[in-house]
Each structure stands twice: as C-alpha cells, then as structure tokens.
C-alpha cells in the first residue's frame, strides 16, 4: 500500500480551526511530537489516524489524498524558464514547493502572469505601433486561463446541462428538434432557418420578436449547438452571470467573453451529456470518428468535449485540446493535463499538429517528449469549413488531442504503436524562446537570455548555436 504524506493538508485543517499542535494531538489521542512529524512529512498518515481525523473534523478521506500537481509544476516551471525572472529552481525544490505550498505556488504563477502582461503592454507602447490597450488579446487570455485553472471542467454548468438533457430525453438524431421544441414551448422563441447571409452570422437572436435565426449553411450538429447555446442563457443565465461576475477578469470585455464561453460550455454539455458521452467514449475507446457518427456532431466538437471530462469520481482520460491554423496561430487551447502551451515564440515545429496539414483528413499520431522528460501521446487531424459559395475563402484548422503517455493504451489510436520504453519518441519543446534543447535544427528563435556562439571563422548546422 502506498504511503500517504499529507503534512500541508493536515496543517491547513489544524490552522483553519485555530488549533495548536498540542490541542490537535489531544483530540486525536496521539502525541504532539507525532503531529509535528506528520506535518513535516517525516512520518506517513496511518489509517487509524486518518479515520480519527475524518470522524473528528467531518472531512472526507479524499481531503488527505495526494494531490495531482503535474499542471501546477508545469506552470511554476514556466515562471523559472523566463530569463527576466532571474531565478533557478531544481526539480526537487519544484516538487516540494507545489506539494507543500500549493497556494504560494499558484500566487507565484498569477504574479508572473501579471508581470508578463504588463511587460507585453509596455513593449507594445514602446514600439510605437499605435495600439490601444483594448487592441491586445489580453481579455481572451484571461478567459483561457480561467478555464485552464479549472481543468476545463465547469461543474456548476455541466451537471445542470446533464439534468436538462435527461429531462428533454435527448437522443442522437433528434437533438435539434427537441431543443427547438423547448425554446418554443417553454420560452416562446421561434426558430427560423432563413434571413441570414451565409457568409456572415451563424445565428442571430432578436429579443423583441422572440425569434432565433440560423444560417442555412449550418450542419445539423452545428445548428443543435447554436440552439443549445441560446437555451444556456435562458436555463442557466443566473449561474453564468455569477461565474462571470466572480471570476478573475479585469474588464468588461473579458467578462463578456467569459459569459459567451460559459454559455458555449453549457451547450456542449447539453448536446453531449456527461455520463452518456463518457460511457460511449469509453466503449469506443475514444474513437472520435465513431463518436461523431453516434452523436451526429463534428470532429472538433467531440475533441473539445473529450477535454472537459474531469468530473470527480467519474473522470475520463485527461486531454489537452488545441486548434491551430497553417500559420501556427493557436486559436483554441484547453488543457486538463500538465501540458503547458507556450505564450512566447510560437509552438514547436516538431509537434504533430503542424504535420496534419500535409495529410488532410487523416489522423496522425505522435509520442512526444518534453525537455523535462514527460511523455505525451498526441493525435492530430485537419478540419475544413466552407461558407458554401463559389470562390469564397473557407477555413482549415488542425485539431490536436493529447494525453500523458500512461493513458495512451485506453485510446484506440495506440493499437499497433510501441509505447513505453520502446516508443519512437519525438523531442518537442514548449516554444523556441523557452525551449532548452540546444541542438534542435528547427529552432526559429534563440533561447531568451542564453548567449550565442557567433564565430566569423566557422558555421553550424544549428540556426542559433549556443556558446560553448
């Protein structure tokens, strides 16, 4: 049986009740020195003591379970790869900080985010680009960070959406009709499939006329999602308002974007209810094509929903989800894993998501290893959207879904691929400006703060050779 060290959690419980170590020892019928050893992680938490703690203080045993700090470790690690911070921390110190002082670690990450945002704003002003503060993407970044910090799972919306799906008895192939009936019968809103320019809005709601117009170019799954997002405002509006109002958003633009993101989250959870979707996903071993056929929705919608299945007690595979264009711009990113998307210097060109553009419509796989040794299993495929008109520019993206390598065998895409120590691994980084791999021939930028070898009498295969 694995030993449980829970010093930080025990100290948190004791201090939250204003108890001294001696007082806690008396209540648990153990010595004060034993309490001190438990809090300093020199002795593990035994089952008898754990049972006394749960009975005395009314907490679940899960409160003392080892916390998964992989995501927090990745966040703190990014802070110390920023050369402008000027600090170094060993892997052991990193683990100790995140395990024993998670609140301090999160505060450190939050401060670094604020520092980086301020630095970027100052750089924009100094460069005299004529940018207004509202021209930056800061509001979008705030919303992305909000979902990332919650492991891309919003339980306050996921569970009500699942209950509504059960109430409406939503069935694949009949979702759009059922949602339109709910809008009409409960809320007096008519759904009209006309009146919108195919090249502009996908939907538009007219509150005065109680009319929801849908673009005729929408596929059935897309139309159902738009109906579900309208229902989100009507059925879960108070919850959405509360979440947006209490979130860490610095301005009105970010809050409005957050409200839209939360409404879209509710819509996805309504069209693909949690337990039903997770059960089918596990039965199909996360075969995305079969999930698309089963629920009548698109590849991107399925991938995005798979990245949200982190309900305590019934978790799916923890995925990271990303959408990029041909230029390498990341337009969507969500993560329930420790994989951290870089904000500086673009993404890694060796990442499979970019290779997907060379094989349109095919699912590609990759075992990727980060500089810290952590390995991930990735799948990637392109998706194309068109407005339907001749000569009009469509949209092509690459969608990637990744999980830690230890989960790969649960995916049908790992069949026939060597995993573990026998895996053919591609070394990737978080982005060229912070990547620690000196010998990468695909490097687009030098590592921030690292000296380069600039020799007039020699040349190198590496674009930015490091100083010897």
UniProtKB/TrEMBL annotation:
Belongs to the short-chain fatty acyl-CoA assimilation regulator (ScfR) family. InterPro entries: Cro/C1-type_HTH, HTH_RamB, IrrE_HExxH, Lambda_DNA-bd_dom_sf, ScfR_C, TransReg_Diox_bact_type. The keyword Ubl conjugation does not apply. Keywords: DNA-binding, Transcription, Transcription regulation. Residues 10-64 form the HTH cro/C1-type domain. This is XRE family transcriptional regulator. Gene3D superfamilies: lambda repressor-like DNA-binding domains (1.10.260.40). One of its GO terms (cellular component) is cytosol. CDD domains: HTH_XRE. PROSITE patterns: HTH_CROC1 (PS50943). The keyword Ligase does not apply. It comes from Amycolatopsis suaedae. One of its GO terms (molecular function) is DNA binding. It holds the Pfam family HTH_3.
